[in-house]
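re the bet — no i am not wrong, look at it urself. input seq straight from the record:
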Amino acid sequence: MLEDLVLKNRSYRRFYGDCKISNDELLHLVDLARNTASTANLQGLKFLIVNEEKKNADVFETLSFAGRLKEWNGPKEDERPTAYIIILTDLSVGKNLDFDVGICAQTILLGATEMGYGGCMLGSIKREKMSEDFGIDLNKYKISLCIALGKPKEDVRLVDVKEDGDIAYYRDEKGTHYVPKRSLKDILF
């Protein structure tokens, strides 16, 4: 059921490092994204799939995880993502395809959730380094988003926003990750 997938689809940042995602599984996720709606049907996105250990390490070095958790330097080596899908915007097709990026990223994550995986959308990317490492011509492509994927190794829970209105996610001493959500009545205009 869609509701179950949406509620289970969280931003996971720690994974079981020994649970690999195959090329075929990644291609399936990209194929799901390929079939989603696209601005003016331009279909201006490209997808770079990465699931080899050395290349995963190269991608990891270009990313920043969980900016609100100042005391956390990201996942330990054996808890890092085991695959990535990097979403590129083909600048020869269009520059304003941010809606397409969001639709595709959410579709990929919902598909991954259905397959028993989880992930995290990352926009904090050292784009110059990533372009050098993977031969991405930044005059032709915009590195729009990176999706980190793997089998989740953390407990992420939704909680109500407290009376003070603070929406910052946080972790307790056991590592449980809490994500405050505004109530339905608070977001209706």
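see?? Strands lie at 45-50, 83-90, 118-122, 141-150, 156-160, 170-171, 177-181. told u. also The chain is about 30% helix and 20% strand. so pay up
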